[in-house]
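Standup notes, structure subgroup. Blocker cleared on the zinc ion input:
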Amino acid sequence: MTGKTLTILGIETSCDETAAAVVRGTSPGPGEILSSIVASQAGAHAPYGGVVPEIASRAHLEILDAVIERAIAGAGIAPGEIDGIAATAGPGLIGGVMVGLTTAKGVALGLGKPLIAVNHLMGHALTARLTQGTEFPFLLLLVSGGHCQLLGVGGLDDFRLYGSTIDDAAGEAFDKVAKLLGLAYPGGPEVEKLAAQGNPRAYDLPRPLVTGHNIRKTADFSFSGLKTAVRLLTERQTVKTEDVCASFQAAVIDILTDRTRTAMAMFERDFLREQRPGKVGAAAVLPTQKNDASGFPSGRATQQKRLVVAGGVAANRAIGQALARLCGAEAFALAVPPPVLCTDNAAMIAWAGLERLAAGGGDALGVSPRARWPLSA
Ligand code: KG4
Ligand code: ZN
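Run returned:
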């Protein structure tokens, strides 16, 4: 179905957002979001400072049907115009994934349309294609509440893992620090707000695995030591919350930019070698190169150095600005989807389903939900 315009219903229930969306478009994008409904359960989980799986699956079950109906009505289409139903089939909290996938199977059966079982991480990974038609290959920094990874993305079936977290995910670190400081859940936006009013140099916090501290050049992440340092700091002395937030966010920024710089070299080795035989490591884009309207450097030989940032933490503006500076220095073009498409939503699931269906993909109704489902083999 390559080249054909498809209309896809997407369903997302892998964490604490119950979401449905209708997206129309042609691979590789950009696509059109006809509707996108995201019903957050954050209020139900707030007293616990994190997502409670049993509460999440019950809440999905209660409202998913209504959310789907609203998405279809909001798109202004007849159900018969839907070409396929895409649902998150993992990774995530298994109860919620089962609710979404089972519902999608029912809709697919009822409409007589194909089911696409989508990897939630692929949804995040392909969002920049939905919003601006970003071409393969690109380097992906995926930073959410459950995941923190750097991947080279060469195509729908070509994900190369350069680094991942050895303990907490970046968003999880934001949430845990927020909880320590008595801030609301989810913690990321709260910490960002207060950090803007604080001094990032007020407290000296560790940067685990930062290259300068570690002989091994790694693209792996570690955040639990940083979180523990914040806990010890708050136990030891009276702190100014804004300064803790600013110092913590500064440490996260250093860790993310350091690891992304390392992964940029890995990406260049994997994807740019054929273009520049014998010149591995050299910049592929001239610093003076003008960007075209899409924000990417124009000119054929330069089009392969792209960084896409995805996942809830990509909504953080200070992190976005730091990554923009890194991209400027390393001659990478940067694509960050708008904040509503960085956090969990069903438009990204619909889009990933659209791309897979366009490439001939689709799944049998017997497909199983998966709590764990890495992008790279
Ligand atoms: O992608 P997402 O919506 O859900 C997962 O798949 O995990 O990401 C949610 C995570 C939460 O940990 C939240 O605190 C974090 O993204 N987050 C932020 C910001 N907005 C959301 N972290 C830092 N700064 C933000 N502005
Ligand atoms: Zn997510």
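Discussed briefly. Residues 241-271 form the longest helix (31 residues).
Next: hand off to the docking folks.
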